[in-house]
Design goal:
single chain, alpha/beta, five-stranded parallel β-sheet, four-stranded mixed β-sheet, 14 helices, binds flavin-adenine dinucleotide
């Protein structure tokens, strides 16, 4: 295989984690692998709510950490929660310096939104629901102006290059639909910031590229994966037939929007004392139950926002308009959709994975912050905090070099994923590894994933997807309890006390999967 050698640090991905890490590594040379043009294809640019941080005088990092631990349902690493919440304020100030136009009050204070399971209004926002797009725009401008950062747009990683347990680089392909012959890019260190796994599900809020591929490629190289079973479903994705499903941000419920069904019943009050602001998993299961019962759930913003939704929440208003819904006069139909992967590549407090010379930040990682259920708006925060931690750790480990950009050209070859196989995989995940799970469904899913994988071995991108799908389904099967976002109707109870984080290699997961396939034959 053609090999390119560079002394640059290789960053896989181009979302918030990748961009922020690249800036924190400067002037150390970095090459960034970005499948799309910068700003496109990343969940980060789609984030609506904002970033959780205790910015108000009467709020505190301790309170933020306590809420994070409570939402995580006995699975959060308290030290990580302390670390991340203590650092939150400094990162918001830094993003402000870097040009993010956070919403301000007349006194110049940050406008803080209230989101579910936060005991304080603690989410900084931009132009209502534009936080992700605006933060990304500010960072992209900086990245484009930083000579030490080379961005390879239109490229994607499909494998790690590993020798004797040490990661030396990545295998790249063209990211266009036809793909290309693979080539090896060797660098001084590898940072994976390739996002989560939501798009492995047919019903998702995640951009199409976010399909667990980077978690999968690390797993295929032998990296340990933690908490894979914990996938968060967002309760209020718009049920309008779009793929991905547009999001109606949780901040709307923070403003007082209510959930009703087609009988006009407000069903959350009977289920949780916080009603619509109950933890995300509770609301998602309630929405799912309403959908399953054929009582179409809806988000009603009419009374609290009326026409103001159109100016205060432009992304939501635009998605409504596209689908012929006027939220000022009618409620928005909603469904629970795969949104955030709490699990991912296991990392330590320096952001190091179990393989040498490999770091991970953002949603691809599992740091222990989110436990069984991510607290709203802690996703962007974790990406920021660990991007800087990874950059500092890499800077300590890798010698400084001069900037020397590389030239990458692809040749024809390579096999793209079969769209029908991808569609089947995604439908299997939604049907059997979704909001409510049981052993029968999970085993069916594993057999389907195995069959799809066996029929599509030539597409490495697809193998990365099936690797992550396998890890999620096996971890879900292994966890014989219900906890946080992981709900088993055959094991409805939660084990007493602190939960045990799951840790799996792909080899272990495949052994379980093949046993299940054998049982059926
Ligand atoms: C609709 C929506 C709304 C959200 N709202 C909020 C919010 O308000 N607050 C909050 O905290 N969190 C929110 N989240 C979650 C948050 O956006 C993500 O957790 C966060 O952006 C993850 O950042 P990241 O850099 O890890 O990944 P991403 O921003 O997803 O970036 C991943 C990058 O990796 C690239 N990539 C993928 N595969 C490959 C490959 N094989 N090779 C190379 N590159 C690859 C992608 O193209 C992309 O550039 C939201 C998520 C969604 C989908």
């Amino acid at each position: 295989m053609k090999t390119i050698e560079t002394s640059q640090v290789i960053i896989v991905g181009a979302g918030l984690g990748a961009l922020y890490a690249a800036l924190k590594l400067a002037p150390r040379p970095v090459v960034m692998i970005s499948p799309e043009r910068l700003g496109k294809g990343a969940s980060s640019a789609w984030a609506q709510g904002g970033v959780a941080a205790a910015m108000h005088m009467s709020d505190s990092a301790e309170s933020h950490a306590a809420d994070t631990i409570k939402a995580g349902d006995g699975m959060v690493d308290a030290d990580v929660a302390d670390l991340v919440t203590q650092e939150a304020r400094a990162h918001i100030l830094n993003l402000t310096e870097l040009g993010t136009p956070f919403d301000r009050t007349e006194n110049g204070d940050y406008v803080m939104s209230r989101e579910a399971a936060h005991s304080f209004a603690r989410v900084v926002r931009v132009k209502g629901d534009q936080a992700g797009a605006e933060i990304m725009a500010a960072l992209i401008e900086r990245v484009r102006a930083t000579p030490s950062i080379q961005v390879l747009e239109g490229t994607m990683a499909i494998d790690l290059d590993v020798t004797d347990g040490r990661v030396g680089g990545v295998v790249l392909q063209s990211a266009d639909d036809a793909r290309s012959a693979p080539l090896i890019l060797r660098g001084s260190a590898v940072l994976l910031a390739g996002g989560g796994s939501g798009g492995l599900y047919a019903l998702t809020t995640n951009p199409p590229r976010i399909r667990g591929q980077v978690i999968g490629l690390a797993a295929r190289a032998g990296a340990v994966i933690a908490d894979a079973e914990f996938v968060q479903f967002h309760p209020t994705a718009m049920d309008v037939g779009e793929d991905p499903a547009p999001l109606a941000t949780e901040a709307l419920r923070g403003e007082g929007a209510i959930l009703t069904n087609n009988r006009g019943e407000r069903f959350m009050q009977a289920l949780h004392p916080d009603a619509e602001l109950a933890p995300r998993d509770v609301v998602a299961r309630a929405i799912f139950a309403q959908s399953q019962a054929g009582r179409r759930p809806m988000l009603d913003t009419r009374e609290v926002l009326g026409e103001a939704i159109k100016t205060q929440y432009p992304a939501v208003a635009e998605a409504c308009a596209r689908n012929g819904i006027d939220p000022a006069i009618e409620p928005i139909p909603v469904a629970a959709a795969a949104h955030y992967h709490m699990g991912g590549i296991a990392t330590d407090t320096e952001g190091r994975a179990s393989l040498d010379n490999l770091w991970v930040c953002g949603e691809a990682s599992s740091t222990g912050l989110h436990g069984a259920n991510r607290l709203a708006s802690n996703g962007l925060l974790e990406a920021l905090v660990f991007a800087r931690i990874c950059a500092q750790s890499i800077a300590k480990s890798v010698p400084e070099t001069a900037v020397s950009p590389i030239d990458v050209t692809f040749e024809d070859g390579g096999t793209p994923p079969d769209p029908d196989a991808v569609a089947q995989l995604r439908q299997t995940m939604t049907t059997h590894v979704g909001v409510v799970r049981n052993a029968t469904g999970l085993k069916t899913a594993l057999r389907t994933i195995a069959a799809l994988e066996a029929a599509n071995t030539a597409s490495v991108s697809f193998l990365n997807m099936t690797a992550t799908a396998t890890l999620i389904a096996v971890a879900a099967l292994n966890r014989e309890e219900s906890r946080g976002a992981h709900c088993r109707d055959d094991f409805p109870n939660t084990f007493q006390g602190q939960g045990q984080r799951s840790r799996l290699t792909l080899k272990d997961a495949l052994a379980i999967r093949s046993q299940i396939c054998k049982e059926a034959s």
